[in-house]
Amino acid sequence: MKEQKPKKRQQKNPTHNEEKPSVQSFQTEKPTKYFPQEEIGKPQQTSRDNTRVSVRGTKAKSCAGRSKSLEQFAEETVKTQPEIPKDKTKASPKTKTAKPHSGKAKLLEQMVEELKITEAETIIEAKICAGTMKSPEEIRKKQQKSFESITKACEPQLQGGTDSILYTTLDKLRIRRNERSDASKVINDIIKSIVEHLKKNTVSFQEVQEPLRTGSYYENLKISSPDEFDVMLPMPVARVDIQPFRDDGAFYSVALKRSKSPLSKFKDEAGILSASKMLKEFREEVTKCVKPFKEWVLTRKKKGCPAVTLTTEVNSVTISLDVVLCIVVQSSWPPFTKDGLRIEGWLGTKVRQKYKYLPYYLVPKYEGRGTMECDGVLAKDIWRVSFSHVEKDILKNHGSEKTCCEEGGVRCCRKDCLKLLKHLLSLLKERESFDKFCSYHAKTTLLHACCSRTKDTDWHTSNLGHCFQIFLKEFEGYLQKGVLHNFFIPTQNLLSGISDESCKSLAQCIRNERYNGFPIFK
Fold it and tell me: Is residue 163 within a helix (H) or strand (E), and if so which, with residue range?
């Protein structure tokens, strides 16, 4: 009988194919003090053997149908596996014992990784079979949400007083109501006098229409003080031939088809309406008009500038008024604007169509040398397209919801972000030579940003710090590439006349302010 006992133990050897121990029983079984005579001298099972037995146990349970669900079992298996730290400088005790046999340690680590991959695939297959796997769209949304949270976490955190600095800066930039009303009264009075003078005392400009008030002040985007005003005086034209000047789609030559137009005296031999001649006479008439008003001073004409600039003082603050003569074109917009004004996802298709039916304006402005000639037309005689009236309406009605920033509605931070960027640019200009950058670059960046983040909730005022960070990063991206497309004319690059060195230098200055908590605002 004593001789037969070892045979029975051999039949219960765990390497037999008919019966395999489960992972749970194997891991929870405690070693006993008694060892059979055959097992004396055998090396103890390593974690590699445990891994193999675990895999065999998984297969045995799935085949026999006695285990839990694949997902639950895989999670338990992962928990029970020995964790192999990725940090090679701090190895676990088990890893240290394998150092003399580096090949075995690497093999063990590789087997554990393969086991984890297999377990993950098993879980996915089980979910698909059970019908609990999410759709690709749901997975994409979840990944996007996770990406946004990671991006937000990786941004420079607005800690301490940085977020409050932005609100404090905005409060300083706010214009007081009495300052606004005093400046507006002075501007309205002089504009009224100029229009009356043109109607009564001139022949060329007697058909001038009501002033078109544009610019930051009338868009509620003026900062610090009401010291700059822009007013356009439109002249109607009928039946004109518009031809592009160069290939950017922003500048045009204008030919009058109607011979009895009051502006016919400004045509050249080829029938082209000369912007330089027209602007010269307009400047002379404005000079005559403001001569009796001693408080107003006419500034010197700037090269390529379409405006006649007047200055005066209101409450010890010097304010300037840019009066711009323009012509109104009552026809469809130029072909170069076809792919511009992409506001369908933001303000809607109907709003875009409404804007497309509006007339557009041409102002006497050129770039580069005025003597440059293209197709027989001098640069000083061309006109630039202006959509200031559309910009003003968009910024006043900027919400995807009609009640955005209205009384009783939810307030957004779109305009606040633009004000802060304009203020940042003005402060950086005082330090560096960034004169070629203007507020219109910031405004165009905001229009593009609103089309990419269309919902009002993307611009909630409580998220000012986060929104301003994203807004600045987008502006930096345009500067790094040296490309900022006109919002209405995508073929025009607003940064084409600025060197790459200046663009990248400004981007670096803004990045430094962003990562250091905007010390320039303190």
Answer: helix 162-173
